[in-house]
Amino acid sequence: MKRSITRLLMAPSVILLLAWMIIPLSMTIYFSTIQFSSYNPDQNGFVGWQNFEFFITDPAFIPAVSNTLILLLSVLFITVVFGVMLSALIDKPFFGQGIVRVLLISPFFIMPTVNALIWKNMMMNPVYGIFAWISQSLGLEPIDWLSSYPLMSIIIMVSWQWLPFAILVFVTALQSQDTEQKEAAQMDGATGWHIFRYLTIPHLARPIAVVVMIETIFLLAVFAEILVSTGGGPGYDSTNLTYLIYNQALLQFDVAAASAGGLLAVVLANIVAFFLIRAVGKNLTV
Question: Which membrane topology term applies here (predicted)?
Fold first, then answer.
């Protein structure tokens, strides 16, 4: 009786959640199998797999997939490695610890569009940006980062915003670490590196897996930074799958091809997340 009442109370939220997921997915699948353009909405004949073939054979598809994976892996590496190191540093008590923590975490609360504008205009501008001023102060020629190194520029922007998230998770996890273990290890002659390698890293195994999983979901959908700063260019140098789908849907008005691309992106995201989480979990628990 109690189970029936529990299921009955949960039913509205479960039905709403399923409708919220299934209806958009069903519409995306439907649009991916028909010929549908925003220019000619009346022409919606069934075309089967042609939209998928069209999207895969697009000259921008391979660069977009490559850029998506490079962006994902680079940002994950930067945020996890530097996140662990910075978390271990600020976990020890020192003067101004609270202020330093707030400053390190604050970039995570900046909107992606604002983040891109800050880096584009204040940091990477080749005329009046901070990087240009540093180069000129050293007697070097300023670099136009967004034109010369577009993908690296996007990686820097996204890493700067997501590094605080990793720090926040790791610092929280370190606060639950057993201090008696560390004290016993120090009494046995263990150095700071040994404690970090054999106690801290294994303790952070699950938080690292959580950070990788959550960041993977969002990093595969990076869009605002690319739209605001590089526009996917020069050429396809900074185009990822998300921006390519946007280009097909809202710039080329080909909703059908964009729907096919969206489904391919979902499949790719699940494959990448599956292998990344398994690899991280296996390496950290060895």
Answer: Multi-pass membrane protein
End-to-end C-alpha distance for the chain, whole angstroms: 46
pLDDT of residue 280: 66
pLDDT in tens, 141-181: 888 899 999 999 999 999 999 999 999 899 888 887 767 66
Longest Cα–Cα distance in the chain: 79
Residue 54: inside a domain, yes or no? no
Contact 219, 71 (CB under 8 A): yes
Residue 217 lies in a domain: yes
Rounded-to-integer distance, Cα 144 and Cα 129, Å = 10
Q: Looking at 175-240, list the stretches that DSSP marks H as alpha helix, in order from N- to C-terminal side.
A: 179-187, 192-195, 201-203, 205-219, 224-229
- The domain of 169 spans 59-285
Supply the pTM of this predicted model.
Answer: 0.84
Query: In this structure, what token pair is assigned to residue 198?
Result: 């054999």
Q: How many domains does the chain contain in total?
A: 1
Structure tokens at 172: 């929280």
- pLDDT < 50: residue spans in the chain: 286
Tell me the CATH number at 90: 1.10.3720.10
User: Under 8 Å CB-to-CB from 218, ≥6 apart: which residues?
Assistant: 162
SS3 124: coil
